[in-house]
């Protein structure tokens, strides 16, 4: 379960089963839900999904926090599914599936707007590259330096994003660093916006 994984990854950066390295410094950011396996388990164990949702709702209410949308959605769809089977209504089941798919589509169309946001200023510090027309951007704190490289390469019509280096305080950033990590470790919570520089990649001998 997630709580066991989180405890394990506080001291390790490998998969507890196959021992493959998840991520050198931030393994927690690279784990995700296995929805397929979860669905199989819920189908195999009667009443498990309803019990899990109930526990999660009680947990959030106990802390005085709002229940996350995905738990509300799962609870709602489970209830509709059970009601339709009790009443022998196949049409209700189709409607609940349709509503669930619509909710999922809404979540997919969020484009990380609900994430913590970071304001960035992208400056060019090389005469070999031109500056961006719009150098001020705002994006999710979970976006990585690689996302920024791809964005700059597209705007400057470069053949490959691998031709770029992005720096903060004159230090080259790793492509897997999230912007949240950069703000905390390199920018050290200084006043926004986060100032980043880009330049052509330099091959170090």
From TrEMBL:
Localization per record: Nucleus
InterPro entries named among the record's database cross-references: PcG_RING_finger, RAWUL, Znf_RING/FYVE/PHD
Keyword Transcription regulation: yes
Residue ranges with Basic and acidic residues bias: 80-103
GO CC, alphabetical: PcG protein complex
An example Gene Ontology molecular-function term: zinc ion binding
Domain RAWUL: 135-199
UniProt keyword list: Metal-binding, Nucleus, Repressor, Transcription, Transcription regulation, Zinc, Zinc-finger
Gene3D superfamilies for the chain: Phosphatidylinositol 3-kinase Catalytic Subunit, Chain A, domain 1 (3.10.20.90), Zinc/RING finger domain, C3HC4 (zinc finger) (3.30.40.10)
Stretches for region Disordered: 71-112
Keyword Transport applies: no
Pfam family, one: RAWUL
Protein name in the entry: Polycomb group RING finger protein 3
């Amino acid at each position: 379960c997630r709580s066991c994984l989180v405890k394990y990854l506080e001291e390790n950066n490998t998969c507890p089963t196959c021992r493959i390295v998840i991520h050198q410094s931030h393994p927690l950011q690279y784990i995700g839900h296995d929805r397929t396996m979860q669905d199989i388990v819920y189908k195999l164990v009667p009443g498990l999904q309803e019990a899990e949702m109930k526990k999660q709702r009680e947990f959030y209410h106990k802390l005085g926090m709002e229940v996350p949308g995905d738990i509300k959605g799962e609870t709602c769809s489970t209830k509709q599914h059970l009601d339709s089977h009790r009443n022998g209504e196949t049409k209700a089941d189709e409607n609940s599936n349709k509503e669930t798919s619509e909710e999922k589509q809404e979540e997919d169309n969020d484009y990380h707007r609900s994430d913590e946001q970071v304001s960035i200023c992208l400056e060019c510090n090389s005469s070999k590259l031109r500056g961006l027309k719009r150098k001020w951007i705002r994006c999710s704190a979970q976006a990585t330096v690689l996302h920024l490289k791809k964005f700059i390469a597209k705007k400057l019509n470069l053949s490959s994003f691998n031709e770029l280096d992005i720096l903060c305080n004159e230090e080259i950033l790793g492509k897997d660093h999230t912007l949240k990590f950069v703000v905390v470790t390199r920018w050290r919570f200084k006043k926004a916006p986060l100032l980043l520089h880009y330049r052509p990649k330099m091959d170090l001998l």
